[in-house]
Design a protein that fits this description.
The chain is mainly α. It has six helices and no strands. The chain has one domain. About 75% of the residues lie in helices and about 0% in strands. The protein starts with a helix and ends with a helix. InterPro entries: DoxX (IPR032808). Keywords: Membrane, Transmembrane, Transmembrane helix.
């Protein structure tokens, strides 16, 4: 839930700043880009900090190789994507890349929701995980399409 709160509050704060004259966030797509960046910094850092890192490794579906490496790579991609969202010339590409990354990582969330003994930090019902995912994908789509 903290991830959703981070996205929403960061977006609203950025949009308020835009209303107060900060040109960098003078539109909803640019404010949402800031919110997404904050969210992906939060989730990206979590890929490197225990116990969350350990829990993320545990929810990588067993058919995938090198779970620790996959968690590291996705964490780096999230952090790079967050930076890309904040730089207007790369914003659209970052939003599209993060959209795809969200899609690619979703099976791990499905796997975690179905695990009989999922790590406590990863226990969210599948319907809630899916709703969050739709929100994140929608935000990335707004940013990606807003820059066109």
């Amino acid at each position: 839930m903290i991830v959703v709160v981070t996205l929403v509050l960061s977006t609203l704060a950025a949009r308020l700043a835009g209303r107060l004259g900060v040109g960098f966030v003078d539109s909803w797509p640019s404010a949402i880009a800031v919110g997404l960046a904050a969210m992906f910094v939060l989730t990206g850092v979590a890929h490197f900090v225990n116990p969350l890192r350990r829990d993320m490794i545990a929810i990588v579906p067993p058919r995938l190789p090198a779970p620790a490496l996959l968690v590291t790579v996705t964490g780096v991609l999230e952090l790079v994507g967050a930076a890309g969202l904040l730089y207007p010339p790369t914003r659209v590409a970052a939003a599209v890349g993060l959209f795809v990354l969200l899609l690619v990582m979703f099976p791990a969330n499905v796997y975690a929701a179905r695990m009989p003994n999922a790590p406590k930090s990863m226990t969210t019902r599948l319907d809630l995980r899916t709703a969050e995912q739709v929100l994140f994908l929608g935000a990335a789509a707004v940013v990606g399409l807003g820059g066109i």
